[in-house]
Amino acid sequence: MKKILVNGKIILPERILDPGYVYIEGNIILEVGEGVPSIGADTERIDVDGKYVSPGFIDIHVHGGGGADFMDGTVDAFLTVAETHVKYGTTALYPTTLTSEVSLLFETLDAYAEAAKCNNKGAQLMGMHLEGPYFAMSQRGAQDPKYIRNPDPDEYVRVLDYSPVIARWSAAPELPGALDFGRYVRSKGKVLALAHTDAIYEEVWEGFKVGYNLATHFYSAMSGVTRRNAYRYAGAVEAGYLIDEMDVEIIADGIHLPMPLLRLIYKIKGADRIALITDAMRGAGMTEGESVLGNINTGLRVVIEDGVAKLLDRSAFAGSVATADRLVRTMLKTGDIPLHKVITMMTKTPARIMGIDHKKGVLEKGKDADIVVFDADINIGMTMVLGDIKYASTC
Fold first, then answer.
1. What is the pLDDT of residues 282-300, one digit of tens each?
2. pLDDT in tens, 10-19
3. pLDDT digit string (tens) for 84-103?
4. Of 190, 150, 141, nearest to 171 (Cα)?
5. Rounded to an integer, what is the distance from CA 74 to the centroid of its chain?
6. 3-state per-residue secondary structure call for the chain
7. Of the chain's two ends, which shows fewer C-beta atoms within 10 Å, N or C?
8. In Å, how far from its chain's centre is CA 126?
């Protein structure tokens, strides 16, 4: 079946076509153009009534939503999260773990494999992101300290051999054995990222040379300028700025990073090096109140208030409850960044980082028909995954 979206503002990487159209056959984009095309009788016409038409949002770091967390280790949890985030414009996501016992990690990987077979209502599952357990204890954030440890080749080789669905692994590059770990991860074709790190610039640079080329939730759980024995050192944040080829992901919920930092990151790194992420836990898409970070039975009890998850003593954030539409809205209105550049950070850049830019991230001929329609306030009107409408607003 052919479909055509007409009367829309079509968001391309460098401009917006107004009015424009997107022509689809099956799960592939056939044509993107300006103006009003002629439509054959065999084509379903979808009039978007002047709304924006964007590539589907790609979330490369997300833990949960809709009351479920991937660390619950069940197929139902994976499907619930995928079906929750598709309502907010996410068409592709990378389920993300927390530090845990290896047995629970294997359960989660198994659940992913089963969920991917029957996920027909939600965002597409693109591969697992392992966050930890190889972290700096001093930068653990809300990660459970009893599982944090240094890289162990017997363990990480076993994990990578266990399942082919792993797409990315985040770790602290300064730890003993972290460089050998990074080389091995990269040898398996996985994306390697630095995270929960107390590294100074020189340690980040050594990590970058073996493949740590993405900074996980930039600024969060990450060293800045520090002193050691009276001498001042640049940290991981400064390294992220100084290394031009390093990509950064940011939780652009307007809380984890205030307006001045959002603008600073954009000014220095630019849209082509920034990926917007939700880093959402199970509370995304839910009402505020008490919740659990991680596995529903063994995870950390937290409270959701003021649009963010906090530790119960309110001493620190314990996770995000953002959805992708909120990221776009924040960067557009708080960051004061042009819409097509914001969309690049939510689509094209994450697709390139994860190596799927040959099929996703841009509205162009031959790419997957992953499409989001929204209004000027970034209220999602429709989400299409591989040519199928997975969500349509009733408003």
1. 999 999 999 999 999 999 9
2. 999 999 999 9
3. 999 999 999 999 999 998 99
4. 150
5. 21
6. CEEEEEEEEEECCCCEEEEEEEEEECCEEEEEEECCCCCCCCEEEEECCCCEEEECEEEEEECEECCEEHHHCCHHHHHHHHHHHHCCCEEEEEEECCCCCHHHHHHHHHHHHHHHHHCCCCCEECCEEEECCCCCHHHCCCCCHHHCCCCCHHHHHHHHHHCCCEEEEEECCCCCCHHHHHHHHHHCCCEEEECCECCEHHHHHHHHHHCCCEECCCCCCECCCEEECCEEECEHHHHHHHCCCCEEEEECCCCCCCHHHHHHHHHHHCHHHEEEECCECCCCCCCCEEEEECCCCCCEEEEEECCEEEECCCCCEEEECCCHHHHHHHHHHCCCCCHHHHHHHHCHHHHHHCCCCCCCCCCCCCCECCEEEECCCCCEEEEEECCEEEEECCC
7. C
8. 11
The encoded tokens of residue 218 equal 């930039």
371, 384 in Cβ contact below 8 A?
yes
Tokens (6 digits) for 178: 């972290």
Residues 250, 323: contact at Cβ < 8 Å?
Answer: no
Measured between alpha carbons, how far is 227 from 385 in angstroms, rounded to an integer?
49
**For 261-277, how does the pLDDT look when each residue is reduced to its tens digit (9 = 90+)?**
999 999 999 999 999 99
Q: Which long-range contacts (CB under 8 A, 24 or more apart) does 297-300 make?
A: 298/104, 299/69, 299/71, 299/98, 300/142, 300/144
Q: What is the CA radius of gyration of the chain?
A: 20
Confidence band, pLDDT 50/70/90 cuts, at residue 38: confident
Q: Is the pLDDT of residue 45 over 80?
A: yes
